[in-house]
Amino acid sequence: MSPFAASDVLIEVAYFIATALFILSLKWMSSPTTARRGVLAGEAGMALAIVGTLLHRGIVEYRWVVIALVLGTVIGIPLGRVAMTAVPQRTALSHAFGALCVTLVGTAEFYLRAPNVPKFLMAVLSMEVILGSLTLTGSLMAAGKLQEVLPQRPITYKGQNFVNLSLLAIAVIVAVLLVLDPSRTHLYPLIVVIPLVFGVMMIIPIGGADMPTVISLLNSYAGLSAAAMGFVLDSKLLIVAGALDGASGFILSVNMSKAMNRSFTNVLFGAFGQEQTAAAGKEEARPVRSATAEESAAILAAANKVVIVPGYGMAVSQAQHKVRELYDALTKRGVDVKFGIHPVAGRMPGHMNVLLAEADIPYDKLLDMDEINGDFPQTDVALIIGANDVTNPAARTDPSSPIYGMPILDVDKARTVMVIKRGMAAGFAGIENPLYYLDRTLMLFGDAKGFVGNIVRELSGSSHS
Amino acid sequence: MKLDLLSSLYVFMLAAFIGFEVIRRVSPLLHTPLMSLTNALDAIAVVGAIILAGEHKTTLATILGTIAIVSATSNIVGGFIITDRMLKMFKSSGARKA
């Protein structure tokens, strides 16, 4: 016994230090200046925990462990090297992987212990497996929609919420039956399969604009299921890591819901598609003012202060590098250029910041909605690239609008508003945007990348003459 | 057993509070790397999978544990790599001019 006790203590110490490193890791993420240190702390904690676990005296067979670790690394490296535009689907996919791991471990633990599973253990194990399974398929569906291998449009049908809630209710009832009598092992597959189906059904009615909320929510579920696994395995390290991840996902989901002025339940149980029909119908051909790249370049060059508002359209059109050229051209002329970023711009929280940082735009120029909104009245030009609903003033003024009450970027307070847009079609949510018909608004029709490129060319052309 | 459970619940509660306090302070600028980092940290579930696959108690447990290690490890490796790649890109105005 005594030779083993030493390694036990060593393992516990490794886990203890790893837990502290994980907390520090997240603490250092608070600022871009310390964030990379945070990654190092996380890596060190992870390495310690894995090495510590390999010393575990229960391990008799290393072959499969080593093969699996190597295989996981081989799969993980390309997943870490995807393009920045593909980060949302990569994140969804990694939630699915995390959930798969948790579900498989839970399942194995159940069959190892059944039929003598204590009630509390069975309860947390059920929670682990239910959350894990629904996160697995839900995340795969989300990744499929983001990668556009699945249709992005929300699919709704009558009684959808009833079907979904019933599925979840049945899974919970089965779990309760198992807790009451864990020897009913034949019931166990149901608490895996039903949530797997629920995960698919849950994401079917969700559209692209709701993805930031959904990804955050799935992140939270993945964390909670890992924490539940910590209870099952009596691992404090896992409980802490899961709780941190769950808290992070929860905070992000609340942020996202707030930024869309919608509740959690509304995102999950009310696809935008059902509400927009009310707003449509009053469509009329109102005149808009449009401008060419040459005219836009002249207005931008004469401005003192420009705020660029990017949206998902910028990512789709891969315009971020052209936007950087525009930023450089204007900054060189002494124009003060900043970026106004709405929390739900893009397909996941913080998506736009990553794309703009990749294009080498300094992060101190990327401002959050709350930071930039006070600046718009003193702004000469607000240039909107591929964003729509997050700039819609109807959210402030029109109580009948489906997005009424949603916090928006107050671009309509700038002296001139320029909107780069392919055509006059409504945005993702299908809601008309009165911004386009204002006297101060100029519509720049065209592809974001192409149009910004033309403006840059005009700006550099005139500087030579 | 009962005491273990109780202390686990305490740990969970405290960790959740720490999580809320720490993550509330993360700038919205870094929300994407935050998510990929927490995702990598969450893959610490690999320790459970390693023990499961290594203990070799039943064939089923070994198979499930092995697959679980693969999926968790890919999250650890991929998650840390992409988080660091993203963070490397964030430069301040001063750093860029220099």
Fold blueprint:
The complex is a heterodimer of chains A (465) and B (98).
Chain A: H1 2-28, H2 35-54, H3 63-80, H4 87-113, H5 119-146, H6 160-180, H7 188-203, H8 211-233, H9 236-259, H10 264-269, H11 272-279, H12 293-302, E1 305-310, H13 312-316, H14 320-332, E2 336-341, H15 351-358, E3 366-368, H16 369-372, E4 381-385, H17 394-397, E5 416-421, E6 441-445, H18 448-464
Parallel strand pairs in A: 1-2, 1-4, 2-3, 4-5, 5-6
Helix pairs in contact in A: 1-2, 1-9, 4-5, 4-8, 5-6, 5-7, 5-8, 6-7, 8-9, 12-18, 14-18
Chain B: H1 2-24, H2 31-42, H3 46-55, H4 59-89, H5 93-97
Helix pairs in contact in B: 2-4, 3-4
Q: What would the principal axes of the Cα set say about the shape of chain A?
A: globular
Strand content of chain B: under 5%
Total strand segments of chain A: 6
As a percent range, the share of helical residues of chain A equals 55-70%
Low-confidence stretches of chain B: none
